[in-house]
Amino acid sequence: MKHVAVIVSLLWIALPVVAQKADTAAGKREESLSLRTGPLQPEFPLQIAGVVFSDTELQVLLVNLTSRQVEQVTVGIMLEDKTSPEPVTRIGKVCNSSVPPGRFLLVKTANTGFDGADAYFRGKGITQKAVAVGITHVRLAGGIEWNLPLEAKGRFEGEGDKDLERKIEALRRKAFGRHSMAPFFDPSREDKVGICRE
Questions:
Q1: Which of 57, 123, 183, 189 is the most buried (most CB within 10 A)?
Q2: φ/ψ of residue 163, rounded to 5
Q3: How far from 193 is each of 1, 115, 180, 186, CA to CA, in Å?
Q4: How far is residue 178 CA from its own chain's centroid?
Q5: pLDDT tens digit string along 142-181?
Q6: Distance of CA 176 to CAs 18, 64, 185, Å?
Q7: What DSSP designation does 30 have?
């Protein structure tokens, strides 16, 4: 299996990634994965600044847009499974971290719930995998919380906001320049990117 990692930096897009098995002529099925990020939720204190994914990995880069420190965040996943009449959601593990205003947080695969999504797809034999990822919970210093009840709603809500997109892009460029992959693969960026603590 060829693994393909793709960086997604624009919000609410569908980007197909094809990971073909070496011997498709021998009757093996082609697999594909498409991922989209939930629409912008201007009232949420954290926003998605980038995503890297492959058929077995999903990492989400978040940015704190408030004047308070973020203490906790949870990422959720919605599986677009045409074989199921009900929306299929997976909520990731709670990510505890200290994210100052204007700084970034990298939520790695272990905290995104993508392992459960991958197991679900494999168990159902689904090869054309479609996943949407978004933020479902944020807690700021002082106990202020934001919640999106993904399991109850079965979808991410929000809308396009060009000003917010520009603000996120400006913060990302200020922190990482044109090297959009740096926060995912460069450990020397720890001064700008927090990670989840158990």
A1: 183
A2: -65, -40
A3: 31, 23, 13, 10
A4: 20
A5: 999 999 888 888 888 777 778 888 999 899 888 888 766 6
A6: 28, 15, 12
A7: P
The encoded tokens of residue 128 equal 């054309």
Measured torsion, CA atoms of residues 168, 133, 40, 63, in degrees rounded to the nearest 10: -30
Question: In angstroms, rounded to a whole number, what is the distance separating the alpha carbons of residues 61 and 184?
Answer: 8
Q: Radius of gyration over alpha carbons of the chain, in Å?
A: 17
Q: Could you tell me the CA-to-CA distances from 67 to 12, 101, 180 in Å, in that order?
A: 25, 5, 24
Distance CA(40)–CA(109), nearest Å, equals 21
Whole-prediction pTM value? 0.81
Q: What is the share, in percent, of the chain residues with pLDDT greater than 90?
A: 25
